[in-house]
Every structure is written in C-alpha cells, then in structure tokens.
Amino acid sequence: MKFIIVIASLIFSFQFASAVSNESGQIVELKVTEKGFVPEKVDVKPGTSVVLKITRKTDNTCAKQIKISSRNIKKDLPLDKAVSIDLGKLEKGDITFACGMDMMTGHIIVQ
Ligand SMILES: [Cu+2]
Fold first, then answer.
1. 37 C-alpha to center of ligand 1: Å?
2. What is the predicted pLDDT for the residue at 24?
3. Under CATH, which number does the domain 24-110 receive?
C-alpha cells in the first residue's frame, strides 16, 4: 500500500513537475532475465529521486532476490510481480545491486 502511494505521488509530481517545482523523480524499471539484471547499468542525474521497479521474468535464474548492500536492502523477487524499492534522492556515486549471492550484479551510476 505504501508503495502504491509512493508511485502515485511520483506520477503526480511528474505531471506537474514543470509547473509546480523543479523536483525530479524517476522510476527505473529493471527485469531479471536469463542474462541477469536488464539493464545492467542505469544512469541517473544527482538529486534525482529514484524508485527501482524490478520484475523477475524467469525461473531460470539465481536472482530470486535483489540485494543492495550499501542500503542494507534485501528483497525477494517473486516471478512476474513488480517489486518497488524507493531509494530516495541519490547523490553522486555508484550504487551496486546484486542477486542474493552477489553473483549477478548491476549498477546505478549517479553522475
Ligand atoms: Cu545468485
């Protein structure tokens, strides 16, 4: 329920961003396929509020969890069901995400 409100308010702020404020937000969609996390690299601008939306599309993967060590986040990824992770406003740097065993990784590059 909380995620729905977050997403709804993000969509709302997108639509009115230019008129009301210069706050920027972005929903980053990731998929888990046989190749791993797709896309493997995501570029965002510093100061952007990011919500990750991850959908696992295959059972043929070890990435049935996503782990973001720098944020102490570990979440199960059910098949074909989008999981949202609100990362808040991102500062310059590199956020690494991985499967539960750190075998498959990807990056959010903030620059
Ligand atoms: Cu793994």
1. 11
2. 79
3. 2.60.40.420
